[in-house]
Amino acid sequence: MVSCECNSKQGSLTTTISENEEIEIFQISNRYYEQEHEELPQELFEGNARWVEQMHENDSLFFEKLTKGQNPNYLFIGCSDSRVPAEQILGLGAGDLFVHRNIANVVNLTDHSLNAVIQFAVENLKVKHIIVCGHYDCGGIKAALAPHDHGPLHSWLCEVKEVVDGNKAELSVINSKEKRMEKIVELNVIQQCKNVMKLNRVQKSWKKYGIPHIQGIVFDIKTGQLIDLEIKNSKLYDEIKESHDSEL
Ligand code: CO
Predict the structure, then answer these.
(1) pTM for this one?
(2) For residue 93, what are the domain limits?
(3) 2 located within any domain
(4) Which of 31, 50, 56, 83 is catalytic?
(5) What's the structural domain count of the chain?
(6) 81 among known catalytic residues
(7) Does the annotation mark 193 as catalytic?
(8) Rounded CA gap, 22 and 205, in Å?
(9) 11 - beta bridge partners?
(10) pLDDT by residue for the chain (248 residues), tens digit each?
């Protein structure tokens, strides 16, 4: 016999579950577990086995080197889109890239997860570059422009909506809808680079040690190529220093 306390609309109740019911609940949950287990996609483990073999073939000390720790030069902030695999599009591998991805590669200053990633990347890993990578045909950017409410996604994409609102004049002269969307992707990357520079830890490190360099790039899904938006730290700093100088 087990008893559990639960809240119902009538108030707090104590419910007693019989032994038979307890056994039935156990059997049901066990069945679910077994079903889940059966559904685990074997192709992932097979893919992993192939990868392990390939890594061994390329370098017999590969995994031994990984156990020594990580020392990546780059923090990559990209979109969660499955078509933008960070390491692959940069020709890099395990140990080369510290990665954070979210929908539409947004740098939201109240995002604890991203703040923690940036702090660790700057203060512990001492990365030389923070790369903000957008991509054309970004579903997050399209969703930000849609008039209807997307729930939590809607508030997440406010940052992108502000990019659109803040660049209305520049966007209004672009007639092609596709080109306008591409421009928004680029402007969004530039804005997120500015947001990176607003962070105290980034600014202080850059002023003291000259790193990290903030880089803005766009991945063109149609060609696979990267476009360098030629971001400069000094320019970013000039644009945000009045309200976000770390020494004020
Ligand atoms: Co995207």
Answers:
(1) 0.83
(2) 70-247
(3) no
(4) 83
(5) 1
(6) yes
(7) no
(8) 58
(9) 8
(10) 444 444 443 444 445 667 777 777 777 666 666 655 566 789 999 999 999 999 999 999 999 999 999 999 999 999 999 999 999 999 999 999 999 999 999 999 999 999 999 999 999 999 999 999 999 999 999 999 888 776 888 889 999 999 999 999 999 999 999 999 999 999 999 999 999 999 999 999 999 999 999 999 999 999 999 999 999 999 999 999 998 987 75
